[in-house]
Amino acid sequence: MAYDIVRESVALIEAGRAEPVRSLTRRRRFAAMAVDVSDDVAATMFARRGVGCVHQEIHHLALRDDGWVWLGGGGSSGDERLLADRPAALSGPSLFGPDAPMSSNPRIIAGVGAGGTLDTRGQDEPSDGGRWISRSVIRVSAEVASVEVFDRSLTVPWHGYVLVVWCGDPSDAVARDATGRKLAELRSA
Questions:
Q1: What pLDDT score was predicted for residue 74?
Q2: What is the rounded CA–CA span in Å between residue 177 and residue 184?
């Protein structure tokens, strides 16, 4: 049983945050994980039960006169711990390569995924070529309460995956604890 991407994404955008769900079952085959909105663009993240694994799916949307329109997205296979509470310290893979963001403390904050979608604003060949909508997934440890990026403060969901959407140049991200103290930063490449 698949979910309606647009309907569920719009509901998540309107709610502004995902409610905690720690596992998927035969009856509950998907769960909202995270959302970010920047002006007239949004990204939503869902976990979807697959055969033997859980898939993480991210969708890009743009606001038009008649409401939110799905532009595309991407996904990856994860494991059953995708919806688990975030760990005390991060371990495991993060983005590597010349364009990967650099963490001041990879046990606190790390870039774990990135992508984007071209928005042609519904035109076959826009005169300006369209705009690129970027998104990044940042993983944080349990002590992080919020992530500051693009002059926005994003509350960290229970699972520790923070979704960020933007148009234009990337921005550094700052991990803060519940008192607002800076714990670490993720510098854009």
A1: 86
A2: 10
Given a contact cutoff of 8 angstroms between Cβ atoms, the answer to whether 53 and 78 are in contact is yes
Q: Which residue has the tokens 């905690």?
A: 20
φ/ψ of 164, rounded to 5, equals -130, 135
**Over the stretch 89-125, which tens digit does the pLDDT of each residue have?**
998 666 556 666 788 999 999 998 899 999 987 777 7
Domain range for 168 is: 5-187
Order the strands of the 152-155 sheet from edge to edge.
Answer: 102-103, 182-187, 173-176, 146-149, 152-155
Q: What is the pLDDT of residues 150-176, one digit of tens each?
A: 999 999 999 999 999 999 999 999 999
CB atoms within 10 A of CB 174: 19
What contacts 151, CB < 8 A, 6 or more positions away? Answer: none
Please give the tally of structural domains in the chain.
1
Residue 130 and residue 167: Cα distance in Å, rounded? 11
Q: Which residues contact 148 (CB under 8 A, 6 or more apart)?
A: 154, 173, 174, 176
DSSP-derived 3-state class of residue 169: coil
